[in-house]
Every structure is written in structure tokens, then in C-alpha cells.
Specification:
alpha/beta, disordered N terminus, 6-stranded mixed beta sheet, 36% helix, 2 domains, disordered C terminus
């Protein structure tokens, strides 16, 4: 199947934009080669301010590679990435972090030996206590800032209903609790947009519902914009509009969850050539059952 000839689904006129039509992230004809492998092929998409955008597709579709390019972990071979209208192509992750673009990973990357609270307190940049001179000559300023950050961390723990684990070593958390901790780390700074890679992977249904609720609250109460990779289609349907589908390194379709999963080309991408007449529910089940790798 040649993706170049397949039409995109545009069932929702708002797809890829906020209600006001303002894009926070614009990806323009981005490609990435790894030797002879064309992992991302001329991808163009927009993530609207104030949306929760889903990015789905079969394994090997290029989803995580695209995330890594947007977040600065990979340099694109070609193409342009803009954040709030500014060209940020090729910026390092720490520079994008300073601009409010954050991402999480399929495997949580906590500081194992630190407590849950300490993991949160590590996030804010440019803390005065990081300077030996400040520790010697401005101990009052160091202590004041540390109290401020600790209070912020305790607010985040309360928001996440993790207060009872504040002093627990992060290594002892369950997989779902570690995913909540990663969300909490985004709350310790002024995040504009958060890219979530397989936030539901390996998480039990109860904690997955908790994570979905946290994402909804951050979106509703704090104005977060999200883009998330996920294989659980119930999770996608609950949270995301629009949904962008990738296959073979390219954008295949875009629209509401119902529209994209009813599209015959999406069904083919998940179930294989000759399956385009399979019921859309089967495609959703295939997506939910896919292994958590992009």
C-alpha cells in the first residue's frame, strides 16, 4: 500500500488546531533517515493549543521517532519544527524544556534512590543551591527557595493523590505510580505542551483511569496541551480529539477517534492488506492489543 496516494480523514474541521485555529506545534515536511532506513517520511502536522492530540499507528510506524525529533533528541534529516511560531528545529532538549516543551518516555526515568518528593524537587532549573558560592554566602536564599520548591512539590503530590508516598523511594513505586510521578514532574515547571509516550504501557486499568483523570484535570484546570502516543483505544477515545494516524513513517489519516478507526486505510494499516472490509471495532481491538513500541 502506497501511503502517498491515501487521502487523510478530516471529519472534524478542528483537527490539528485549537478552536481558535492556533497551532502550538507545527511539523512541516519532517523526514528522518537512519542509514538506509527512512523512519519518518515527509511528515506535516499541527498540534493545536489547548487540545489533547492522539498519535496512533501500528508498531514501527515512526511515532516515537517523531516524538524524539520534536523534543530535540534526534535531529531531523530535513524539514522544520515550530513552537508558538518560532523555528525550534534542532534545538537541544534542555532548550526546548526552557520553552515549555516536555516529554515523557515509555519507560519512566525516575531517580531511583531519591524519594518521590525529592524527584519532584529536582525538576525546577537554576536553583540557587546548585551553586557552591550561594551555599556558602547566601544560605538564606538557598533555604527560602528550597522551601518554595518543597511546598510546590507537596501541592503536586496532593493533586496526584500521591501524598502518602511522598517519602517513599521512587524505585519502590509501581509502574502506574511512576507514570503519575512523571506527570507530576511536568507540573513543577511552566509546561506549555507535554508529549506522553505510551503513558498507559504496563499500567493496570485502575491506575490508567487515574492517569486519564489527571491528564483531563491538567488540560481543563491548568490549560495544558498534550500530544500522546497510545495503543489503548479506549484511552484514546476518552481523551483525544483529534487523532493522527501514522503508518510506514508517514501520516495516514487525521480526525476524530471514530472517524479514523472507521477509515478503511487505517483498518488496513492495523490488520493488513485485504482487511479493509473488517468492522472498525476489530481495528480498535487490534490497536489496543498492539505491543507498546513505536
Amino acid at each position: 500500500m502506497s501511503l502517498d496516494t491515501q487521502p487523510s480523514v478530516r471529519a472534524d474541521a478542528r483537527a490539528g488546531t485549537s478552536p481558535a485555529g492556533v497551532a502550538m506545534v507545527e511539523v512541516d515536511r519532517v523526514s528522518k533517515w537512519f542509514g538506509g532506513i527512512h523512519a519518518v517520511r515527509e511528515v506535516s502536522l499541527r498540534i493545536g493549543r489547548g487540545t489533547i492530540t492522539g498519535l496512533i499507528g501500528p508498531n514501527g510506524a515512526g511515532k516515537t521517532t517523531l516524538f524524539n525529533i520534536i523534543a530535540g533528541h534526534y535531529k531531523p534529516t530535513s524539514g522544520t519544527i515550530r513552537l508558538d511560531g518560532d523555528d525550534v528545529t534542532g534545538l537541544e532538549p534542555h532548550a526546548l524544556f526552557g520553552r515549555g516543551l516536555l516529554r515523557t518516555f515509555q519507560l519512566a526515568q525516575e531517580f531511583h534512590s531519591l524519594s518521590v518528593r525529592e524527584n519532584l524537587m529536582m525538576v525546577p532549573p537554576d536553583q540557587p543551591g546548585e551553586s557552591l558560592l550561594n551555599a556558602w554566602f547566601r544560605p538564606g536564599a538557598v533555604a527560602a527557595r528550597e522551601r518554595e520548591i518543597r511546598d510546590k512539590a507537596d501541592e503536586v503530590l496532593d493533586f496526584l493523590t500521591l501524598t502518602h508516598l511522598a517519602d517513599e523511594r521512587a524505585a519502590n513505586l509501581s509502574g502506574g505510580q511512576k507514570k503519575l510521578l512523571e506527570l507530576g514532574r511536568t507540573m513543577m515547571v511552566d509546561a506549555k505542551i507535554v508529549f506522553l509516550d505510551e503513558v498507559g504501557a504496563g499500567v493496570n486499568r485502575t491506575l490508567l483511569n487515574t492517569i486519564a483523570g489527571v491528564i483531563e484535570r491538567l488540560h481543563r484546570e491548568k490549560g495544558y496541551t498534550f500530544c500522546l502516543i497510545e495503543h489503548d483505544m479506549d484511552f484514546i477515545a476518552r481523551l483525544c480529539d483529534p487523532v493522527i494516524v501514522m503508518a510506514e513513517g508517514a501520516v495516514l489519516a487525521e480526525g476524530t477517534p471514530g472517524a479514523v478507526m472507521a477509515n478503511e486505510h487505517v483498518i488496513e494499516a492495523y490488520l493488513g492488506t485485504g482487511s479493509k472490509h473488517v468492522r472498525p471495532q476489530a481495528a480498535a481491538q487490534a490497536a489496543a492489543a498492539a505491543k507498546p513500541s513505536a
